[in-house]
C-alpha cells in the first residue's frame, strides 16, 4: 500500500511522531512537518527502520501560511494527493488564566491550534474532493470535551474551536468522501508537559497515556473503511 500519502504536522515529537511512525510502518508514504529539522529526521529514520517507505521531511512553522502552501505543493509534487492529514502541532503557555495570560501568547496559541489547522485543511480539501475522499484527524484535547480549569483560556478556546471545524467538515464534505475525526486525548506523557506552569512528577507521568497509545487510535481512524466516519474519539488514561 505505498500509494497513500499522509501529511502529519507536529511530526517531530509526541503523538505526531508516533502517529507518523505507525502510518509509515503500515506502508503509507508520510510527509513530516514541524519546526525542528533534527526531530523530523529522527522520525523519518524510525519509519525507515520500521520498514516503511522513505518519508518527506518538510520543516515549517504552521503559523506561516506561505510555508504551509509551499509544503503542500511539495507533497503533491513528490507523493501526489494527500489522502490523509493528521494535525498534531499544538501550543500552550505556562501563563494560562485571565489574570496572567498575555494577548500575544493568546494569539500564538489560537494561530497554532486553530487557524493553522483550518489552513492545512483548506489546502488539502480540493485534492481530497477530486480523489473522491480523504481522512482528516484533528488533535484537540480532553479539555475541549469537559472543562479542565488548568488547561488555559486560549488553549481551551482554540481546542474547542476544532470541534466546529470537524463538524462543518463532516456536514459539508462528507458527500465528497471526506471524513474528519476530532481526537480528544487526556494527559499524554510528552514534551508538551514542559509548557505547564508546574511540572508533573515521574509518578504522574507514568500514569499518563503514551504518545503511542494515541497513535494506535489515529491508525484505527486511518484504517477505517472509507464509508465509516469516526466523528469523535475521547481517550483518557485509566483511573485519571
Ligand atoms: N500532552 C498532552 O497531555 C496533550 C493532551 C491533549 C492534547 N494534546 C495535544 O496533542 C498535540 C500533540 O502534542 P504532544 O503531546 O504530542 O506534544 P509535543 O511532543 O510537544 O508535540 C507538539 C508538536 O507540535 C509542533 N509544533 C508546535 N508549534 C509548531 C509550529 N508553530 N509549527 C510547526 N510545528 C509546531 C512541535 O514541533 P516543533 O517544536 O519542532 O515545531 C511538536 O512536535 C498538541 O496539539 C497538543 O495540544 C496534548
Verbal overview:
The chain is an alpha/beta fold. It has one domain (5-235): NAD(P)-binding Rossmann-like Domain (Rossmann fold, 3-Layer(aba) Sandwich). It contains 7 helices and 7 strands, in the order βαβαβαβαβαβααβ. It has helices spanning 14-25, 37-49, 65-79, 103-131, 153-173, 202-207, 211-223; strands at residues 5-9, 29-33, 56-57, 84-87, 134-139, 178-185, 232-235. Strands 3-2-1-4-5-6-7 form a 7-stranded parallel β-sheet, sandwiched between helices. It is globular and about 45 Å long. The model has no long low-confidence stretch (mean pLDDT 97). The structure holds NADP nicotinamide-adenine-dinucleotide phosphate.
CATH architecture: 3-Layer(aba) Sandwich
Do you know the CATH topology? Rossmann fold
Poorly predicted segments: none
- What coarse outline follows from CA principal-axis ratios? globular
Class per helix and strand makeup: alpha/beta
CATH class: Alpha Beta
Q: Order of strands across the biggest sheet?
A: 3-2-1-4-5-6-7
Give a list of the ligands: NADP nicotinamide-adenine-dinucleotide phosphate
**Ends distance:** 38 Å
Number of strands: 7
> Number of helical segments?
7
Helix/strand order: EHEHEHEHEHEHHE
CATH superfamily: NAD(P)-binding Rossmann-like Domain
Taking all Cα atoms into account, the compactness measure Rg is 17 Å
Task: Tell me what portion of residues adopts beta-strand conformation.
Answer: 5-15%
Q: The biggest beta sheet, please?
A: 7 strands, parallel
**Mean pLDDT metric:** 97
Number of domains: 1
Amino acid at each position: 500500500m505505498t500509494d497513500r500519502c499522509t501529511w502529519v504536522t507536529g511530526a517531530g515529537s509526541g503523538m505526531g511522531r508516533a502517529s507518523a511512525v505507525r502510518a509509515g510502518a503500515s506502508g503509507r508514504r508520510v510527509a513530516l512537518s514541524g519546526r525542528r529539522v533534527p526531530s523530523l529526521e529522527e522520525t523519518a529514520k524510525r519509519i525507515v527502520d520500521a520498514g516503511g517507505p522513505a518519508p518527506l521531511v518538510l520543516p515549517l512553522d504552521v503559523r506561516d501560511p506561505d510555508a504551509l502552501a509551499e509544503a503542500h505543493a511539495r507533497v503533491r509534487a513528490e507523493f501526489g494527493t494527500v489522502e490523509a492529514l493528521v494535525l498534531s502541532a499544538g501550543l500552550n503557555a505556562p501563563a494560562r488564566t485571565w489574570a496572567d495570560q498575555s494577548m500575544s501568547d493568546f494569539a500564538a496559541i489560537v494561530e497554532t491550534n486553530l487557524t493553522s489547522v483550518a489552513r492545512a485543511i483548506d489546502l488539502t480539501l480540493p485534492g481530497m474532493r477530486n480523489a473522491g475522499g480523504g481522512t482528516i484527524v484533528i488533535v484537540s484535547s480532553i479539555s475541549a470535551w469537559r472543562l479542565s480549569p488548568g488547561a488555559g483560556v486560549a488553549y481551551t478556546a482554540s481546542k474547542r474551536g476544532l470541534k466546529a471545524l470537524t463538524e462543518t467538515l463532516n456536514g459539508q464534505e462528507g458527500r465528497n468522501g471526506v471524513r474528519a475525526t476530532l481526537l480528544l486525548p487526556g494527559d499524554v506523557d510528552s514534551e508538551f508537559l514542559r509548557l505547564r506552569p508546574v511540572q508533573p512528577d515521574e509518578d504522574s507521568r507514568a500514569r499518563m497515556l503514551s504518545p503511542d497509545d494515541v497513535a494506535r487510535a489515529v491508525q484505527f481512524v486511518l484504517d477505517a473503511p472509507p464509508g465509516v466516519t469516526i466523528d469523535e474519539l475521547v481517550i483518557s488514561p485509566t483511573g485519571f
